[in-house]
Specification:
- With 82 residues, this protein is mainly α.
- The model has no long low-confidence stretch (mean pLDDT 88).
């Protein structure tokens, strides 16, 4: 990955998926076995990495694919509001 790559272009749709499924972040943390703090970092687009095992567990718990959980803003406009 280039050093100047803008990681703020990556958006985690965790909030939206939780609402769609009527699930709380606390319930997801318990289901997945990940701390509430770590899920909050992910949810707020502050994570710099995610383990594949965590990604798979999240997708299993939410009944989704990785592409439904993450989106990339091609123009970098999403990250400018942060």
């Amino acid at each position: 990955m280039p050093a100047d790559e803008d990681l703020s272009r990556l958006h985690c749709r965790l909030d939206e998926l939780l609402v769609e499924r009527g699930m709380t972040l606390t319930a997801l943390a318990e289901d997945v076995g990940v701390s509430l703090v770590n899920l909050s970092v992910l949810k707020n687009d502050r994570a710099k990495a995610i383990r594949f095992s965590t990604l798979i567990a999240l997708c299993d718990a939410l009944g989704c694919q990785p592409g439904e959980l993450f989106t990339v803003d091609a123009h970098g406009t999403q990250g400018s509001a942060r």
